[in-house]
Amino acid sequence: MRNIFASFCAILLFLGFVGMSVAAPVTFKFTGRVIAVDDEGSNLSSFFSVNDTFSGSYTFDSTTIDSEEDEGHGWYHKPYYDHPDSFKIIFDHDPLNLTFKLDVPMGGWNVYSISTFTNSYWIYYNYYVNGSLQGNPVGNLTVGSFHWSNLCSMPNDSLPISPPILNPPGYFSIHGSLSFRPCTGSGNRCPVVKFVLTSLTLGDPNVDSDDDGTPDGIDNCPFDPNKIDPGTCGCGVADTDTDDDGTPDCIDNCPDDPNKTEPGICGCGIIDTGIDTDGDGTYDCNDGCPFDPNKIVPGACGCGVEDIDTNGNGIPDCNEGGVTIYVPSDYPTIQAAIDVASGGDTIIVGDGTYYENVNVAKQIIIKSLNGPELTTVIAVDTEDHVFEVTANYVTIQSFAIQIDEWQQPFPNTSGIYLGNNTDYCTISGNLLTGGGNYRGITICSSNNNTISNNTCSVGLSYGIYLTESCNNSVSDNTFKDTANRGIQLSNSSENNLISRNTCLNNDRGIELSSSNNNIITHNNVNSNHWCGISIFDSSNNSFSGNSISDNGYGTYFNSGIYVASSNENIFFLNNISNQPYSNVYSFNSNNIWHSPTEINYLYNGTFYTSCLGNYYDDHYLQDSDGDGITDTDYDLPDIEPDDEYPLASTSDKYSIPENEAPVARAGGPYTVDEGTALILDGSGSYDPDEDVLFFAWDLDNDGEYDDSTTKQPVHTWDDDGTYAVGLKVSDSVLEDINTTTVTVNNVAPTVDVGNDQTAIENQSVNFKGSFTDPGADTHIIEWNFGDAQGDSGNLNTSHVYSQEGIYTVTLTVTDDDGGVGSDSLTIEVISTQDAITQILQEARTAINGLDDSVFKRKQMRNNLNSKINSVLRLIDKRRYQRALDKLEYGILTKMDGCAETASPDKNDWIIDCDAQKQVYPLIVEAIALLRTLV
Prior knowledge:
- By secondary structure, this protein is mostly beta strands.
- The protein has 6 helices and 62 strands.
- The strands form 10 sheets. Strands 12-13-16-19-22-25-28-31-34-37-40-43 form a 12-stranded parallel sheet, covered by helices on one side.
- α1 (334-340) links the parallel β12 (324-327) and β13 (346-349).
- The longest helix has 19 residues, at 913-931.
């Protein structure tokens, strides 16, 4: 800053306490800037520039508050007229006033105007207790007037300022602007410089909240002991720049990459080169198959091979097993067959009775050869499930399943149990019975399963029991003669389809408990002891086209439909008749007893349009206009509103030709590992009119449903994250869309460092590593050679060990999501002398293995061995030159003819070229190593 304020001085004034002493020093912090320079009549811009800033601090120590004055003297980067006191502001005091004083000691400069201080002025005062801000009371300063008769001849005067009492003492700030000009012109043509005092802060030295030695009043980070100014990152955050690229880590999204502050396309640490070798729109740095334009991850089949699932069983053709196993001809029991099966296999069970509890933890198909009449599975352990399924995409078909022993108390075992996220299973054509209290089929915390054409009957507590399970289809089953419920949905079982089932002679036909958004349609619910359909704490369900009759024994609990504490359920086109007590009973509920919209329907040969309610056999059936809706509402006891559109005939007399929209069910939410093919399942979708459905999927979340047209597409995500997918189903006229999510987990790299090795000291040894990663990740490659040295960035590397010993070599690969894979090998490093010894011993062994016919004379075998033994003794005595001479001239020359002339020469003791090839290279290798020791 050029030629700005020289100094500030002040004292701490406890107003209201006249004559008291101030024992501690007081610190002022001041900041400001030049806000205007008028060069008219003088070139002031050489000394002042607009927006020049000035700042400083001053500590004042006074022992009295009488008439003492203490001044601080500033400095100038470019002094005006080389005078150190060109301009200064002094804070003075007396017992009642804090005086703002302007001191211009040299001629030619005087006060021109004080634009802000001519009226009352604000003072801001904050105080802290134990480091906590307590308040911000506001007072004002009463500003006096100047008494200068001649601005140029009266250089010094005082402007009294009376601030409010500061109680308790803390610090305050004042703000204002000042204008000055030298008296070198005439009238208003004098040039003017205008300053603004941005802040002046008086700090209490006794308050230092963060103990960093700087009082809170002048500490811009009063609670950060490492900072007195926020800097770039703010108080409490160090302005660290790890990669020294000039951008602090707090705003650097690549804090360890000096060339990047954002990951870009390829990630931190990798230059975004923009290379796309296969032209598939994905840069090679993110393309797991950079030479395959149809893939960016290897998937199940690898790069260059399409992951096709021809039969739609969830296993790509490249990995399809498809083995069929027969019981009992191949294996005596069902469990034995499961234990040896692989995913995708089929187990066919022949006629007979099998006493076992079956655990299914593989994606397989299990079905009987000739149906449940001839194939029975009976539990051995009556306190365990007969079939327990813990794998996805399992089929169990056409068995008679039973537990013969009566269990007390309820054991909660089941004929077929799907639990703990067991999804996309098919249970069909089975006959389940029991000798006591157990469930036919249980679906626990499992979704998107299909239960069809099963019969659950005598000896069961429940026919089918769903708890915490969603998007399942339960259709065309028979549930009869159970001790409790035919169908039970409980504990937030939602979005299930319950259709075309028969519930007969159970305690209750269908019950919903704390379950919402389900569809219950076209079921026959008859002759159940307690009630037909009971609903507790369940909302937004749809009940349509159900036949409900002859349920209950004659109390209000024994109704066709019993509803308690349930709201916004929709009931329409149901037939409710012949109930001993009432067709409908409702308590503390508010539901809709007709179709949610008007329906075009045909009744007695005429088309009408109206909402349609339900048929009640105890309702007065007068229909004067013949539209199939009775003239009066059906009075529902304790229910508001009533059914305003009760049917004059059973619902089968109403033909509804108008198409109804299909319902899309995308399944999920799904979880899969990156690079692993996922089968999405839209089989929960349906059409109320049973029209043929057409499927279209949006798997890349671009809003276009153009990625697959199959019911169960297979898709692979190349990197971890959460992705949205959508399914659109159409019946060619109307369509529906449903979305879900896929959570893709990161998979750590799988590393292969190769086999154990033996190396020679001071000789280079090569390492060749490899890894696979199903994700489209970037990777950091690091070698540890086991001797405090390593390498990075390369899969193929080499190293020289200076000392013999046994070392562990480790290759570690880390992906950009923190997944770490590693593999190690052991390398034995031997001395050069030991290596030569091993080679010569190997040569001696090779010589001894030769046939006598390959030697010029038979005794030459022993002679060669003697020569090698002599060399070994020399090496052991470290007489390396002598040993080298013997090898080169006494041994090598006896077997080098074939190497030099392609045929044995007259000096060769081994006279067969194939035999020479077994020994000659070993001698040459030993010679090369000996030369390093000479």
